[in-house]
Description:
Chain B is of the alpha/beta class. Chain B has helices at residues 2-18, 40-56, 72-81, 96-101, 109-114, 125-130, 153-158, 164-169, 175-184, 205-212, 230-244, 277-283, 319-329, 332-341, 350-353, 356-359, 369-377, 387-402, 408-424, and strands at residues 30-37, 60-67, 88-92, 132-133, 136-137, 139-152, 187-188, 194-200, 267-273, 289-292, 304-312, 379-380. In chain C, α1 (3-39) runs antiparallel to α13 and α3 (72-103) packs across α7 (157-167).
Amino acid sequence: MRRGIERRQAFWGFLFITPWLAGFLLFTLGPMLASLALSFCRYDMARLQFVGAANYERLLTRDPLFWRALWNTATYTLFAVPLGLTGSLLLALLLNRNVRGLALYRTLYYLPSLIPAVATALLWNWVFNANFGILNQALRAAGMARPPEWLQDPHWALPALIVMSLWGIGGGRMIIFLAGLQGIPQSYYEAAAIDGAGRWQKFRHVTLPMLTPIIFFNLVMGIIGSFQVFTAAYIMTGGGPANATLFYVLYLFRQAFEQLRMGYASAMAWVLFLILLGFTAIQFRQARRWVYYEGEPQ
Amino acid sequence: MKWALGLLFVTAAALWLFTARPEPVPPGVTVLRYMAWGNPEQLAAEQELIDEFTRRHPAIRVKLTLVPGSAYYQKLQVMLASGTAPDVFRCDHYQFPAYAQRGYFLPLDEFVQRDPDFRYADYFDQVIEEGRHAGRFYGVNTLFGARVIYYNKDLFARAGLTDPYVLYRRGEWTVEQFLDAAQRLTVTGHNGIVEQFGVLVHPLEVWTFAWGFGGEILTPDGSRCVADQPGTVQALQFLRDLRHRWHVTPTPAENALSAYTFESGRIAMVFDWAGAAPRYRQHIRNFDWDIVSIPSGPAGRHPMLKGNQLLIYRQTRAPEAAWQFLKFYVSRDAEALLCGRLRRAMTTRRDLAAAEEYLRSDRPPRQNDVWIDQYAIGRPLPITARWSDWQAEWNRAFELLMLNRLSPEEMAREAATRINAILAEEPY
Amino acid sequence: MSANGRHAWRRLKALAIYALLTGGAVVFSIPLLWCVSAAFKDVQTVFRVPVQWIPRPAHPENFRDAWRVLPFARFVANTLIVTGFAVVGQVLSASLVAYGFARFRFRGRNALFMLLLSTMLLPAQVTMIPVFLIWRRLGLVDTFAPLVLPAYLGGGAFTIFLLRQFYLTLPRELDEAAMLDGCSYFGIWRHIVLPLSRPALITVLLFSFLGHWDEFMGPLIYLHSPEKLTVSIGLRLFQDQYGQTNLPLLMAASLLHILPVVLIFLAGQRYFIKGIAMTGLKE
Lengths: 298, 428, 283
């Protein structure tokens, strides 16, 4: 009897995931393996030549820009992810209340994340302008005599991009948090109220635990996405000034499409893959301790 | 039941919409795929040329693929790597040697030999030279041009300065005069904010001034960096001083992407390629402007010359039709449109360069004789297949120089050492 | 605290929250207002400082010009077709696959899930060409297929992972009750899981719409014929080879471009109201 149920589960489980599995086998597995193979080759878009681990060796021992790019990207992630996550969560909590004009507020916070990248880049170049930009004007009005030169200063360019990423706290991440908050059954809050829980207790013992699967999602995706940050640096700073904003994927892109070193770029991609795989595996392991799934299969 | 019918309809619609249905081609007609970059106005001009070509060659149908300039090479590379590139496409000379080396292009020598309509002698020498690689001829030249100075005539007049063109004709348009003009044309308002700057420079100007001061950045064959020599250091110093000593050009902070542009009337002189003329024509409404050659330095006047190549894909299935299109694109009529009427580029043809219709213009730029001078005095950039290898290093050092974090000597020395290390490595 | 005191405290908190929300909204809106204002300016004055918030003279014809200078009607139609089909496919297939990962136990499930996630870890630049070669072999380059078909095959790890997280928050008792009533697995998906996760589905719909509406790389490399291009390519054409952008036209076109997304967002809002925390202000 047990075996029958198990077999049924396995059959249906596989059936449901078939669309993804089919797509993976058709369109994803081959290219991924191809890029892995390329990483052991020298491929300049015309000639292909097997070179063993030469790309990796050069990457890890003779390429200072690799370490610079990794450092820039890791720093960016270290700040942008926690700040963004906290910001989005707080915003979602604020926007989950019965305030007047809720739809308008939510839209106003969401709109900035919709503006196309090119327009955003021009806009922020203007905002960060050392002389005319409103950011420095505000800082000067607040008393700072010589505000930083932001995108023109190698020390402040990366912080500028981190600040810019905060504009997205009202974006998709927040919507996901909102959806998560919406999914918490009212009955839980009512039961807690009957038990005499106050606002803070409700938050701590109902909201937060029920939200942990979503927080986990945003955390994992946040790190994966942040390590692959590309567009802002590509359009706005070009990796500068003086490689201060040279992000990993930007450097990879240049190797692939400007220097036509596809094999080398593939090696870079797989190094990133391993790093992210490590991070993700650790996070999943840790998740058992703090993520609460109401409907966890036994 | 309705559900199933709906699904059927949707599936049919999807199959119709999403599967490949090659366009039926009437017999005897060759389809030619042509790819170019451009903004909407430029692409409209391309279409005009294509229409004229189709009128003359009804058996050839040209399909234009529009690509945004900023993503052109990504698309092209995917197409080249997958063997699906268009029959005819344009390539910037920056990329030409690297791509030619990879065997992407069809050599044109035989076409030229067999075709009496196309003669090398019709074109300026540099134009043809650019299209050569490893002894073979691959591409006709299009969007060819020199780097010149666009200047605001009204601002000069208002400041009581002699028009640079007049100085140029008198042989007096020197770096000193240029600097003097830039200084007198930089005006600061009462609130300390600069209302107009004398000049706008681009990192490319380092070549202009290095050559003008007798220096070099790379050896002419592009194999070694020789930037640490007096002429080059002088040029680097000059460029840095423009910003940090004489303040005649805005810092990047002051100019965050175009707070000061030539079109807005807040810049008196801007260095730019010949191809910038249509844009200025379109956007400048309330002042008179024109072009003049770059100023001459102690070692003479050596403007940059560079074009783009129009090429035939090696694996094309319509080489004859492609050759007809290439020939047409650099014919007198086509260039009269592109270079004469639209001022998109300097003409590559000797006959058009001498023609009244090319020299005369009822809208700026009017001083088109300046273009003619460029052929004689212009110099090509030493672009080789390794051009992109060292750019990042040079740009980084140059950025630090312009941010005043490196002295010109330091910058030149550091750049030369690092770049030579890169160039000495085996090419990838 | 007295009843009056509590009341006053609550009003103060309400006021503080409104102030915070409004202040934040203003700060967040400033760039957008600048974009709207820029759309009405012309090239010469768009970057003038100090900022002229209300452009004088205004150029509303930018909107008309942006629409006309390229065949935007065609581009929008193409983008609507691609996005419409893709969104339907993604919502359906992602929820099916996520259901499989969330609710079933089978050997290799966790390994397959890690495999799913790992597809997000490799930058797309290095698989772009091999994938293109596959589509070329299928003969589907220069069609909409490469842009739409993947959506029906799970639609990407992001949405599957997201929905899986949501489904794992739904208590199993509901499933078990339904099974006792004779419901099939598919029926559970259709009658229990889907309705209960409506906010999540709307979110996926929004993400999917936005992702396909804005997609640039796919249309860039797969579409050659000018009559098949999408809006994102059209917008990029406003930037010429020198990187100079006709900003007012670009802004006008961009504002028109985000309009459908905003409308969908607003329309989806009513599914995000029911679960408003009862710890709101109007108790």
